[in-house]
Specification:
Elements: H1 2-59, H2 65-71
Length: 72
């Protein structure tokens, strides 16, 4: 009977270690995805601000495209 308890303990330890390993991998993957999502959101915010500036320039009453191009 002692041999059976020993085998069950080893199997339990292996299964527990495998579960912990899978949990840690999943947590690491979520952190990596979160970082990518944060970077993507920052880029999106920057692009939205640039669009706002362009809309403001285009909708100004004194906007003259030729003058702006010539200034460049």
């Amino acid at each position: 009977m002692n041999n059976m308890v020993f085998v069950l303990c080893i199997i339990s330890i292996v299964l527990a270690a495998n579960t912990v390993q899978q949990y840690l991998k999943l947590r690491h993957k979520k952190e990596a995805n979160s970082t990518v999502a944060d970077e993507t959101q920052a880029q999106l915010d920057e692009l939205e601000e640039r669009i706002r500036v362009l809309e403001r320039i285009v909708t100004e009453n004194k906007f003259d495209l030729r003058q702006e191009i010539n200034k460049l």
